[in-house]
Structure formats: structure tokens, C-alpha cells
Amino acid sequence: MVDEGYYGNSNLKRVGEIIEYTAHQTKELVRCTEDPVYFIKKYVKIVNVDRGLIPFDMYDFQADLVNAFHENRFSIVKFPRQSGKSVTTIAFILWSVLFNEEYVVAILANKGSLAREQLSRLQKAYEYLPKWIQQGIVTWNKGNIEFENGSKVFAYSTSADGVRGNSFNLVMLDEFAHVPHNMALEFFQSTYPVISSGKTTKVIIVSTPKGLNLFYKMWVDAEEGRSSYIPHEIHWSQVPGRDQKWKEETIRNTSEEQFRQEFNTEFIGSSATLVSGSKLRTLAFFNPILSEDGFDIYEQPQPEKLYICIVDCSEGVGQDYSTVSVIDVSQVPYVQVAKFRDNKMPLLFLPNTIYSIATKYNNAFVLVETNNIGQQVIDILHYDLEYENIYKLEQHMIKGLSISGGFKRSSTIGIKTTKTVKKIGCANLKTLIENDKLIINDFDTIAELNSFVRVRDSYEADNGSNDDLVMGLVLFGWLSSQSYFRDANNIDIRKVIMEEQNLLIEENLVPVGYLDNGLEENIFIDGDDVWSTHYISSF
To answer: What are the two backbone dihedrals, phi and then psi, of residue 229, each rounded to the nearest 5 degrees?
Structure first.
């Protein structure tokens, strides 16, 4: 299908249009086919804000990127703002579809309109190519184009169903850091089989950082060699015209934090997070040693170790997540050794999952949040599955809610997250993580911590984020201060932290000095020995 504007566009080659090539043109086609950088520099034109339509005379780093895209299957690029990231990748895509037959490309962005904007840039560059380089146009509209050689380019939003059911030779993910974390995760889970279906399929991910999300995880995995992606980082100073004076002016017109994220390409989390931003940036995540159906294992259970399972329940309808965090509390620091996370598991299946996980980890003690549907889950776990190691709670007039042995008739199983419980839990969780007394291994948990922000007088997930794993840790923070918990594992975490802080204070104290003024001398005789002393003053 071709829109009406195509028929009057004399710049575009029509299907079946005959072109007689000169010897020079034939030679040029061969060279362009072999060298994408040569083709782009000599024949691609772009629209410059100040100068209008100009040849795309690439910077050195742009030429290097095009070669990297050509030579590698998987590329991930961290770009500063306004550095030509879009035009560089679009130019490479244009070369790919012109000089390869039946080559299918998907351009994806966080919004469909942005993806179509990228496609329009490709169309604009194509329109100003010499006719003898062009392919005949079969389809030419805002959403996709098709060429006479069978190559196609589609523009989609980055959604879970964006490219489902299609096969592509190249997928470009533009501004991937700006796609909401859950949507990005679902997209990758649903489309990676499509992307990896061929042996030569390419994936190009380009973005400016925005928080600690899936783009951050993929970048770190690439840097540390835990994936097949080749990382490329572009520094703002590589763009001609950007120097220290430019940096200072940009910061004056924006802010230090905005410059660090958008131009210095630093990964900066949300502001006003429960755990300080400086601490969050140091948290290291690891790939699970085993992952299956939402259950990620970082350490297998060890004999004689004591584990705790913290459970947060959801309805399993694709929104909030049901989560289980498994924490080794045998010694300090406590360590997150496994986690379960699923938002589609039916409610009646969750107790069996909890039972299986808790049994695997040495019959771990279980604490279940019961604010919504959690009571049904814990009733099935306790009465139907007859799991015994579930924390019991009592309500005291003075102490409030506390863990108990469960011998009183008033004892209950499960915990409701009241304002008091959440306040205590948040304060303790902050202390544990910032003092390295709770080690988080899981990326999803760290990502939630980076979007767990202060809202009025409490903390909750930032817009578009989840906090189900973090709320489990909040309950663990509350649990860690309970005397019953301290007695069970013989660890008083508050005492441990206080002792370490006191030791640190002692080590940092300035030692007392003494001054010998050499003026006053006392002499005394002890047997055959004669002793001389001077007056010494302290300061």
C-alpha cells in the first residue's frame, strides 16, 4: 500500500523502473555493498537544524559504531543527549535494507509515535539517495515500507505483543531505558525467541540512561561479559564543540543531576528513595545459578543454615506480583539467596509454591503478609498443607504487634502491614542495607529499591513501578528487630551495628599528644642508677 504523497514524489524509484548503470555506478554499488561507512558518508543526507539538508559526514565515533553494528550481532550503546544516536542507527538500517535481499527490520521505541518518527528519518534519507542506488518502492507509509528487493522496515511501540509472530533480521530498540521496567521485561521475554530465531539476527539497543532498569541490567551484564552484547559508551566530549565551557553552561541551564544522567550517561535512580542513592549505586546484582518459572536461585540451601521466607501475595491477574524472598539469617550479613516473582499465578497455586520453596530451604520459617488475599494463602499453607514453620503473632497493649511462640489463644498467623509495622520495617531495612547487613543479590529487588520513594509520610513504588519484593523486605526489616527472631538465630543485629559504629568512632578518634618543653628537670637516684625526667604537658 502506497500513500497518495508517493505518486507525486519524483525522488522515489518506482517498481520495475529501469536504470542503466554506468561503469562508475556499478563500481560504486559494489563498494557500497561491502562498506556501510563509505555508503553513508558519500550518499546519505540528513537534515541539520542550522544548515538544512547536508551530507552525513559522520564523527569518528559514529563511523566506529556503524562498523561495530556491521560486525557484531548484539550491540548496546549508551549515548548522551543530542549526539546523533538516532541518525547513526537509522543510516545503518538504511544500508542494511538496500544491500540485502529479504531483509526485515523492526524499529521499536517506548511510544509508537517515536518509532514512526525514526522511520520518517529513514524515509527522508532514502528520498535523497541517487535513483541508481534506490530500490523500487512497494509500500511507503508512516508505519512501514517495503522495497522491490523484498526488504521491509516496520515501526512499532515496545510492547509485549509488538513483534510477536514475526521474524526479523534486525531489531532496533530506541531509548530502551525509557520503557517502563515491567513492560520492557515482558517485551524481552516474549520477543527474544523471535530475535534469536536466526543465526545472523542482529539486535541494536541504544539509549540515554534513565534509572536502574532493564537497560541498566543489560548494560552491566554486557560490561562484565555476562551476555553476548558488545557495550559501546559515547562520552559527551566526543561530540565536536562540547568542551568544559559547554558543560558549565549546560549545567547552569539544567542541573548537575540532569547533566550527569543525560550527558555524562550515569545511571541515577529516583530521588527521595528509602535507601540513599549513593548506596543504591553500589549494590551489585548477580545472575541466578538456576532460574525457572519465576523462581531464581542465587545460593542452593546448605545444611544447618537457617532460612526465612517472606511472602507478599497478589491476585495473579497480571498486575501486582506475588513474591517470596528467601533470606539466609544464619549469620550477619543476612543474604538474599533466592526469590520468586510472578503476577499471573492463580491464588490457589501460590501456597504450594511457598510450601515447595520453604521445604527446600531447610523448612524455612515463613512470614506472610495478609492485608488483602494473604489470609487465604496462609490458611491453605497451614491447615491444608500442614506446614508448621509459620511465624505466629500476638498483639500486646504496650509492645504492639510482635512475634511469639503462638501458645496463646489470641495468636494469629500472618502479618498485616499496618502503618506502625511499615514505619519500623522501612527504618530497619534502610539501616540493614546501608550498613551492609543485608546483601541483595537479585536485580528485580534492586530495581524496586531504586523506585521505592517517599510519598507524603510513607514510602511506596514510584509511578509505573512495583514494590512487591521491597515490601517483603520491609516485613523482614520489621522482623529483624523482634526479640523472638533474635533469640532464634542468636543474633542481635542492632547490637552488632552499634558495636561496629562504636569501634569505628574509637578508630577515628584523634590520639592524645604530649609535649616535652625541656625546661623542668627532676633527678632521682635508684641504687646505682641516676634518672632524669622532664615536665611533659598534654594537648
So the answer is: -75, 140
Give the total residue count for the chain. Answer: 539
Condensed to tens digits (0 to 9), the pLDDT of residues 62-115 reads: 999 999 999 999 999 998 888 888 889 999 999 999 999 999 999 988 888 899
C-alpha cell at 47: 537534515
Q: Could you identify the residue written with the cell 560504486?
A: 28
Residue 517 lies in a domain: no
Rounded CA Rg of the chain: 32
Q: Is the dihedral of CA 188, 309, 330, 440 positive or negative?
A: positive
**Residue 539: predicted pLDDT:** 41
Query: Do 195 and 289 belong together in one domain?
Result: no
Positions marked active-site? 175
Burial class (CB in 10 A: 0-12, 13-18, 19+), 383: exposed
Q: Where are the alpha helices (DSSP H) in 397-490?
A: 419-434, 443-449, 468-480, 483-489
Residue with cell 548503470: 21
Q: What angle do CA 129, 133, 135 make, to 5 degrees?
A: 100
Mean pLDDT across 465-494? 82
- Domain count of the fold of the chain: 2
What is the crossing angle of helices 36-43 and 85-98, to 10°?
110
Domain containing residue 427: CATH number: 3.30.420.240
Total Cβ atoms within 10 A of residue 48: 11
Give 385-424 pLDDT, tens digit per residue. Answer: 999 999 988 877 666 788 876 666 667 888 888 898 999 9
Q: Report the distance separating Cα 103 and Cα 107, nearest Å.
A: 13
Domain extent, residue 421, equals 278-501
Can you tell me the distance from the alpha carbon of 67 to that of 274, in angstroms, rounded to the nearest whole number?
Answer: 43
Based on the domain organization, do 228 and 292 belong to the same domain?
no
> Nine-digit cell at 7?
505518486
213 and 317 fall within a common domain:
no
355 shares a domain with 427:
yes
Residue 432 included in any domain: yes
